[in-house]
Amino acid sequence: MKLLTATREGQGDRDGDFCYAVEGELVFAGFVCATDRRDPAGGCGCGRAFSGLNSLRATTTALVRDLDLTYDDVRLALSAHFVAAGMGPDVLDAADFEEMLEEEVEQTIRYAQVWEPGAIVGRRLDSVHLRTPAVR
Q: What is the pTM of this model?
């Protein structure tokens, strides 16, 4: 399955680039604060970054990789991320947690399906865009 992973590739190509996530870890388009919703180029950077599922740290570039993972693997990884981030079913209503989890799993999978493995992508709020095409 094609998924997005943290990468340092492409870092520095644009002002405001950063990579605090662990190279190669799965990432998803994390939540965006009110400040970045108003101006994703400013604020804390969450409006232009992906969140690392394991490190809980962010990066502005992600690499598309074809990984031997299933839907259930992605769901488990995102669930563990939310629990570690303090947003588990013990904090949120269990039904709300399940709804949030399903939406994020679908979005995480969908964002990577557009590009070929090896492509570098970026983010601006709710959209993911190509930064560097895959080398063939």
A: 0.92
